[in-house]
Write a structure and sequence with these properties.
- The chain is mainly alpha-helical.
- The chain contains 5 helices and no strands.
- It is globular and about 50 Å long.
Length: 155
């Protein structure tokens, strides 16, 4: 299994899950609402992204049909596994702890993925980490800000 087959799906699932958890928590959502949001994304968004990736690969004819299918399946499975790990955190921990743990786990997974990519590409780990962690933190802060705004508008 190539890291490229896992990187898109894993990265999207990590950042999306953290953004949902931080944003919904800021909007004072209940644990069941956060779990519901994560599960909907784990299935609906992951399936549509996997399908989009498959159609993209087919349209560019860069891969043989079997390889395009394997890339699609590995993308979906990676996203689903990552998304479900965040669901597990929220289900098992008190909400405040789950928010902190999801940030730690998500950033940790992103560091590991970035390390694997930098190693494979023989690039600078520090430069890649700065880009990837910076982008993830921007998404999380925007989601958190939206949650705070929504909670203030609809108490």
């Amino acid at each position: 299994m190539k890291i490229a087959n896992l990187s898109f799906g894993s990265t999207a699932a990590i950042v999306t899950s953290m953004a949902l958890i931080f944003g919904l928590d800021a909007a004072t959502a209940t644990k069941s609402t956060i779990v519901s949001g994560l599960l909907i994304v784990a299935l609906a968004d992951n399936l549509t992204d996997a399908l989009s990736m498959h159609v993209y690969e087919e349209s560019h004819r860069r891969l043989q049909p079997r390889d395009a299918f394997l890339a699609t399946v590995s993308n979906f499975v990676a996203r689903l596994a990552v998304s479900l790990s965040f669901v597990l955190l929220v289900v098992l921990l008190p909400l405040a702890s789950a928010v902190v743990a999801s940030g730690i786990m998500g950033l940790g997974l992103l560091v590991v993925l970035t390390w694997a990519l930098a190693r494979e590409r023989k690039g600078s780990l520090a430069a890649e980490l700065a880009k990837h962690i910076g982008a993830a933190l921007a998404v999380i802060l925007i989601a958190r800000g939206l949650g705070i705004f929504i909670a203030a508008q609809f108490p």
